[in-house]
UniProtKB/TrEMBL annotation:
Residues 8-50 form the Siroheme decarboxylase NirL-like HTH domain. It comes from Pseudomonas fildesensis. InterPro entries: AsnC_trans_reg2 (IPR040523), HTH-Siroheme_Decarb (IPR050684), NirdL-like_HTH (IPR053953). Involved in heme d1 biosynthesis. Catalyzes the decarboxylation of siroheme into didecarboxysiroheme. This is siroheme decarboxylase. It comes from the Bacteria. Pathway: Porphyrin-containing compound metabolism. Residues 66-133 form the Siroheme decarboxylase AsnC-like ligand binding domain. Its EC number is 4.1.1.111. Keywords: Lyase.
Length: 152
C-alpha cells in the first residue's frame, strides 16, 4: 500500500501515543493541521487496506493484572481463520504470523492469570491447537515504532 501524506503523518506522530483527552481524533487533526473527518477517513482507509489492525492502549502487564506471550502451530491453510479467531478477544494484541513451526504469536493481557488460562483453553477447544504459553519472567523495553521519515 502506498501511503498518502496524511497516513504517513498519522503513523509517524501517533504510533507511540494518542492524546489522552475527551476528543483525541480532533486533537490529532489539530496537531496535523487538518479536520477530524480527515483523520477518521484516513484511519478507515488504513484499516480497510489492512495497514491498521487496532487503535488502543498496551498496558504495563504488572499493573493490568497478568499477561503472557502465546503461540500456535497452525496449518498454513488455516492461518488466516485462526488468526481472526484469536483477534476476536479484546485481551489480544500483537497478533502476528512468523515463519516457524509455531507460526502464530500473540500477547494476552487480562485481570489475572486464571482469565488468561480460560482464553487459552477456549482457543484450544475452538481450534484444536494447543497454545504454547510463555509468561514473561523479565521485562525488556524496546521501541516498537518505525520511523517513516515524515514529520507533521
Amino acid at each position: 500500500m502506498d501511503l498518502d501524506r496524511l497516513s504517513q503523518q498519522l503513523i509517524e506522530r501517533f504510533q507511540h501515543g494518542m492524546p489522552l483527552c475527551a476528543e483525541p481524533y480532533r486533537e490529532m487533526a489539530q496537531v496535523l493541521g487538518c479536520y477530524e473527518a480527515d483523520v477518521m477517513a484516513c484511519l478507515q482507509r488504513l484499516e480497510l487496506a489492512g495497514a491498521l489492525s487496532r487503535i488502543g492502549p498496551v498496558f504495563e502487564h504488572t499493573r493490568a493484572g497478568a499477561s503472557t506471550l502465546a503461540a500456535l502451530a497452525v496449518p498454513l491453510e488455516r492461518l488466516e481463520q485462526v488468526a481472526r479467531r484469536v483477534s476476536q478477544y479484546p485481551e489480544v494484541n500483537h497478533n502476528y504470523a512468523r515463519e516457524h513451526h509455531y507460526n502464530l504469536w500473540f500477547v494476552l493481557t487480562g485481570p489475572h492469570r486464571e482469565h488468561l488460562q480460560q482464553i487459552l483453553d477456549e482457543l484450544e477447544k475452538d481450534t484444536g491447537l494447543t497454545p504454547l504459553d510463555l509468561p514473561m519472567l523479565t521485562a525488556y523495553r524496546i521501541d516498537l515504532g518505525f520511523s517513516l521519515g515524515v514529520h507533521p
